[in-house]
Amino acid sequence: MTKLETMLRGSLWAASLEPDAFDVVLRHAFERWVPAGGYAVRRGEPADCWIGVIEGLVKMSVSQPDGRVSSFTGVTRGGWAGEGSLLKPGAWRYDGVAVRDTHLACVPRHAFEHLVDTSLGFNRFLLSHLNARLSLFVGLVEYDRLLGPDARVARCLASLFDPDLYPHAGQTVQLSQEEIGLLSAVSRQRTNQALHALERAGLLRVAFGSVTVLDLPGLRCYSGELESSPRR
C-alpha cells in the first residue's frame, strides 16, 4: 500500500464512506511534494483540491500589505485543510506554506464535491471538522489579542493536539523551536524562553527537535500566571 493510500484509509472521514465513495477518492487523489518555504496553497489561486499532510508541516497564514504575517494554525501529519474554501467556488483566501519539506495528499475539488453531494456520513464528518476548526480560530483570536508570548506558544502547541483535527498526533510533535515560533508568531529567542517556562510548569517536556505534551488541558488554559515550580 502506498503512503497516499495509507493516509487516505487512515483518515477519520474515510470510515464514514461507503466502499464505492472511497474508491472515487482513491482513483482521483494524487500526491504533491512541497519543499520547505514552498506553497501548498497560495492566496488568490483557484482552490482546486483538499489537502492532507502525509509528512511535514504546513503553516496557514495571511500576509498583510505592510509585510506583516498573521498565522492561523499549523497542519501536521494526518491533518486535512482547505475544506472551507472548497465548499464555495473561488480562490484560496490564505497561504499554506511548507515549514519543512512536506508530502501532501490531494483530493481534487470534483471528488470532494462528489462526497458532499452523495455521502451523509462525510457531511457529518465535515460538520464536526468545521466546528473544531471554528473553535480553534476563536481561541486563536483570543490569545492573539489578549495573551503574552508564553501563553501564545502554549495555546499554539495545544491546537496541534486536537483529536478532531489531528487524530495521529499522539503526545509528541516533531517541531523545532524555530518552527514553533513561526506557528505562534513569536521570535525564536522568545519561543525558547516560553518553552522553558512551560516545562517548569510541568506542562510539557522539551527535547532536541520535539516537544512532548504532559498536560494538554493545562496547555489549553495556560495564561502565564501558573506557579513556576514544577508540578508533582
From TrEMBL:
SMART domains, sorted: cNMP
GO molecular function, one term: DNA binding
SUPFAM superfamilies tied to this protein: cAMP-binding domain-like, Winged helix' DNA-binding domain
Name of this protein: Crp/Fnr family transcriptional regulator
A biological process from GO: regulation of DNA-templated transcription
Keywords: DNA-binding, Transcription, Transcription regulation
Domain Cyclic nucleotide-binding: 13-133
Short name of any one Pfam family annotated for the protein: HTH_Crp_2
Provenance organism: Pseudaquabacterium pictum
InterPro entries for the chain: cNMP-bd_dom, cNMP-bd_dom_sf, HTH_CRP, RmlC-like_jellyroll, WH-like_DNA-bd_sf, WH_DNA-bd_sf
